[in-house]
Amino acid sequence: MLRTLLGEPPRVNSGYLKEAMDAMARMLQLLMNEIKESTDPTHDYRELEIWTRGLITSLDELEQSSFAASFYAAKIHAASTDDMGPDEKADYARYVYFYKDGFIRMFATLDKLGNVLDDWYHLETSRIKAHFSYFTVLKQLEGQPKHKTLLIKLSSLKDKYHQPMNRLRKRRNTEIHHMNVEMQDDLWQRHQALHGKVKLEDLKAFTSDLELGVDLVSRSLRESFEYMNSTWKKQTVRA
């Protein structure tokens, strides 16, 4: 959708994104077959179907936000907002909007995945923490030896993307709980020198982190759903 609005050709899924989408599509097919065969009297399969479709949409929206943030960041050439003309200021505002939308969506999608894993494998993470995150669910998986294969893969991804995720988490927390994230660096620079132009944040580094966030989400979804698909015949509802 956003690519069309930006005058770009439609996205062709590839790489980690495609692998995640394909894994979730296979899950949907398994669910449809199960619902047709069993009529799903408890509605557990229908619930997982809705969660899976929601995750497909969430991943799609996350990738679009990341693309749009990079698209507008590439249009910014000034070193400070003071040096921008009206058009460049408008592009910068659009970059900020999609960048913030992207990192908020990134953690939200991971948390939705955490809810799916918690529910499907009956981890009861809410007993540990009422409002839990994806990363809390990973800790809860440690108490499920039969799902050790999945835990190892997801934990490995968490460790691999640790640094960019920490940076994005700090920006997300700042945006939600403190001040607009794009203004935090402005404030720091004002503390250093009361007068003078405030330099822009490193847009390339920021959008690179967001792109890595899309990769982490895509790969985590792929591993989770490939595992669910491969163990389908071995599990019962909420095994």
How would you describe the overall organization of this protein?
This protein is an all-alpha fold and 239 residues long. It has one domain. The chain is built from nine helices and no strands. It is elongated. The model is unreliable at 187-193 (pLDDT under 50). Pfam families: HEPN_Cthe2314. This is Cthe-2314-like HEPN domain-containing protein. InterPro entries: HEPN_Cthe2314 (IPR041394). Residues 51-229 form the Cthe-2314-like HEPN domain.
Brief descriptors of the model:
0% strand, 9 helices, 239 residues, elongated, mainly alpha
Question: Structural class, please?
Answer: mainly alpha
The end-to-end span amounts to 38 Å
Unreliably modeled segments: 187-193
Approximate strand percentage: under 5%
Supply the number of helical segments. Answer: 9
Sheet with the most strands, sense and barrel status: none
The H-and-E topology, N to C, reads as HHHHHHHHH
Number of domains: 1
Chain-averaged pLDDT: 90
Helical content band: over 70%
Q: What best-fitting shape do the alpha-carbon axes yield?
A: elongated
Radius of gyration from CA coordinates: 20 Å
Report the strand count. Answer: 0
